[in-house]
Every structure is written in C-alpha cells, then in structure tokens.
Design goal:
about 90% helix, rod-shaped, mainly alpha
Length: about 180
C-alpha cells in the first residue's frame, strides 16, 4: 500500500499534471475545473447561497436587534442617571434648607437666651435693690428706735430729776384724760 501511495505521489507532480490537450480527462487542470463547476452547481442546486444569505440576514437582524436593545438600555440608563442626579440635587437643596433653618433657629434661640438673661439680670438687680432698700429701712428704723429709746431714757432721767411728785401726778392725770378722750 505504501508503495502504491509513493507511486501515485511521484506521478502526480505538477510537471506531469498538465500534459496533453486541455479538454481531456487526462489534463488535471480540466478535471479541477470540472470539479469546481460541479461543486458550484451542487451549491446552487441545494440553494446554499440563499441559505447563506438568509443566515447572514438573520445574523444582521439579530445584531441590529441587539444594537437597538443596547441603545434603548443606554437611553434608559441615561434617563435613570438624570433622574438620580435630579433627586440628589433636590436632596442637597433640602439639606441646605434644613441647615439654614437650623442656623436661623439657633440664632433665634441665642437671641432669646440673651433676652431672657437680660430680663433675669434685671429682675435679680431689682430684687437686690429691694433687699438693699429693705435693709436700709430696717437699719434706719433700728437707729430711730435706738435714738427714741435713748431720747426717752434721757428725757425720763431729766424729767425724773426735774419733776416733783405733784407735777408727776398731774402729768399722769392729763395723760389718762387725753387717752380716754381719744378712745371715746
């Protein structure tokens, strides 16, 4: 078998292939041409070019569908991104408003605390002044009471030295009469 394969390989060299007239089955170029024509005929008979075109058209339609789907998904993703960016901007604006409101509230509370502190200080100052006035009045009263006590004691001593028993009885009677006149 090997010998036969080697023999055919030696005779099938290109130098031996194209001998003789062209339209002869001994001419390998003519045989190859006939084989090619028969192959093309078989392909056309079985409508292989139409099948290939159909497969290519189907593949083109599938690619077009994929591209359309990708385009729609891209547009949807862009719309979703724009929506999220708008929402983020709205949330940021709301956060800024909340911060501004909190600052205003804090400033208002600070002003109110200052006013309350001023009012409290004024009340305490007034209470302290009232206590000072009360202490002053109490001290003046104590001094007056002491002065009156000293004056009464001094007057009693002076009167006791200068008054006799009859003058004292007369003063007592006058005092009783004056008290009884005021009471009735």
């Amino acid at each position: 078998m090997k010998r036969l394969a080697v023999l055919f390989a030696l005779f099938a060299t290109p130098a031996f292939a194209a001998k003789g007239p062209f339209f002869s089955l001994g001419n390998t170029d003519f045989v190859v041409l006939l084989g090619f024509i028969v192959f093309i005929g078989v392909l056309i008979y079985f409508k292989v070019p139409g099948l290939l075109m159909g497969m290519l058209d189907k593949r083109a339609e599938d690619i077009k569908k994929d591209l359309d789907e990708a385009r729609s998904l891209r547009e949807e993703a862009q719309a979703l991104l724009a929506s999220y960016e708008r929402k983020q901007q709205e949330v940021q604006e709301q956060a800024n408003r909340i911060v501004a409101k909190a600052r205003e509230d804090a400033e208002s509370a600070a002003e109110q605390a200052k006013e309350d502190l001023k009012t409290s200080i004024a009340r305490r100052l007034a209470a302290a002044e009232d206590q000072i006035a009360s202490a002053e009045a109490s001290a003046v009263k104590d001094v007056r009471d002491t002065a009156i006590g000293v004056a009464v004691a001094a007057a009693q001593e002076v009167i006791a030295k200068q008054t006799t028993a009859s003058a004292a009885n007369k003063l007592i009677d006058d005092g009783i009469a004056e008290v009884s006149a005021k009471l009735h």
